[in-house]
Write a structure and sequence with these properties.
The structure holds two protein chains of two kinds. Chain A has no helices and eleven strands. In chain A, the strands form two sheets. In chain A, strands 2, 4, 5, 6, 9, 10 and 11 form a seven-stranded mixed sheet that branches. A four-stranded antiparallel sheet of chain A has the order 1-3-8-7, with no helix packed on it. By secondary structure, chain A is mainly beta. Chain A has strands at about 5, 10-15, 20-25, 30-40, 45-50, 55-60, 65-70, 75-80, 85-95, 105, 110-114. The relative contact order of chain A is 0.33. In chain A, about 0% of the residues lie in helices and about 55% in strands. Chain B is globular and about 45 Å long. In chain B, the strands form three sheets. In chain B, strands 2, 5, 6, 10, 11 and 12 form a six-stranded mixed sheet that branches. Helices cover about 0% and strands about 50% of the residues of chain B. Chain B is built from no helices and twelve strands. The chains are: A mainly beta, B mainly beta.
Chain lengths: ~110, ~120
């Protein structure tokens, strides 16, 4: 069966520090991968998505970047965090190809920038 | 432009009663999928139900059903026989078949089930 791992679960970082959140998927090949951010009490905003190794699409211009160094690994990074980067970050995956399959989410990372 | 609209920021329902959570969407793609997710206070995203744009029947999954009205571009979630454990945020989402295949989410509805 497929599983998705996302870490860390919680993170407190000072302004100006770097960030690296990692997400890995097991039990599937060539998944579509996504990073979402959720502000407190709000909906999910798509940040990045990837349909293959090295293929990253950015949805929102911002202080963040994403990379996919391996087929089932997706990394969210920042060189210098801003206060506005605080939020709940969710990684997700879906099978490639069809529109009728749901996305499966990791447990999320609560990031607080202080 | 907002593609998924959930107009109810919060809803209350009595235990054992049914509740409808509204969702409207906007797309010009003839092929798309509509999804509902539940997010408890823990933050995990739990998939509830799916409806395809070409599906003739409304989707059902246990106590969840999706009232799909294609002409009105609405995909309301109906929860029957509400339970205290149903208290959570509920998100409607859509995936279009063309362009990017990512899910686009609405702003959510917070449901509180009262005993």
């Amino acid at each position: 069966s497929q599983t998705i791992h996302q870490w860390p679960v919680t993170l407190v970082q000072p302004v100006g520090s770097p960030l690296s959140l990692e997400c890995t998927v097991e039990g599937t090949s060539n998944p579509n991968l996504y990073w979402y951010r959720q502000a407190a009490g709000r909906g999910l905003q798509l940040l990045f998505y990837s349909v293959g190794i090295g293929q990253i699409s950015s949805e929102v211009p911002q202080n963040l970047s994403a990379s996919r160094p391996q087929d089932r690994q997706f990394i969210l990074s920042s060189k210098k965090l801003l206060l506005s980067d605080s939020g709940f970050y969710l990684c997700a995956w879906s099978p490639p190809g069809t529109v009728n399959t749901e996305a499966f989410f990791g447990q999320g990372t609560r990031l607080t920038v202080v | 432009a907002q593609k998924i609209t959930q107009t109810q920021p919060g809803m209350f329902v009595q235990e054992k009663e049914a509740v409808t959570l509204d969702c409207t969407y906007d797309t010009s793609d003839p092929s798309y999928g509509l999804f509902w997710y539940k997010q408890p206070s823990s933050g995990e995203m739990i998939f509830l139900i799916y409806q395809g744009s070409y599906d003739q029947q409304n989707a059902t999954e246990g106590r969840y059903s999706l009232n799909f009205q294609k002409a009105r571009k609405s995909a309301n979630l109906v929860i029957s026989a509400s339970q205290l454990g149903d208290s959570a945020m509920y998100f409607c989402a859509m995936r279009e078949d063309t362009g990017r295949r990512a899910l686009t989410f609405g702003s959510g509805t917070r449901l509180q089930v009262q005993p």
